[in-house]
Amino acid sequence: MYKGRNASVENVKRLFSSTSGNTVSIEDVFRSWPRDPNEEKINRGWLSNLLSLIKFHNLVKPIYTTKNGPKTLVELQLTPEGKEVLGRATVNSSNSEMVPSSGDGKNNVADLDDIAKKIAKWEQQNEQFEVTFNVRLKGVKSG
Question: Higher confidence at residue 50 or residue 126?
Fold first, then answer.
């Protein structure tokens, strides 16, 4: 049986208490609750159980990496609903308008600040690549 939405919202508030951003690393999640940092396997099992409860309410989305082997959970990202319940929703701000996400068909949105941060983090993890990220209005040629 899934916990109520209010309990899930409280869990999400605690998960994201260490950041004002829309993503949180798994290490920061473990610090949000007093988890033993030496018990990674137990901590990941605990987090898996917690996520099964809060994902039901579409408040967070897990972010995985496949670097160095199998798919591994590395951080959590607030969904638009999660941003709204935490008071972090951004709508049409001058520097970070809402844009469609990766095309998973779920009509999610991501703001440009989040995208730029993710690209910078990916570039640090993949030093063999040089990444160029530009956003411009359609039909406007760059000089």
Answer: 50
Q: Tokens 């040089």 correspond to what residue? A: 130
Contacts of 75 (CB under 8 A, 6+ apart): 23, 24, 25, 26, 62, 63
Question: Is it the case that residue 98 has pLDDT exceeding 60?
Answer: no
For 1-89, which CATH class?
mainly alpha
C-beta pairs of 5-10 under 8 Å, 24+ apart in sequence? 5/57, 7/53, 8/53, 8/54, 8/56, 8/57, 8/59, 9/57, 9/59, 9/85
For 3-17, what is each residue's pLDDT tens digit?
688 888 888 888 888
Give the model's confidence band at 22: pLDDT under 50 very low, under 70 low, under 90 confident, else very high: confident
> Domain spans of the chain?
1-89, 90-136
pTM > 0.90 = no
b/e map 54-82, b = 16+ CB within 10 Å: bbebebbbeeeeeeeeeeeebbbbbbbbb
Round to whole Å and give the CA distance between 15 and 30. Answer: 8
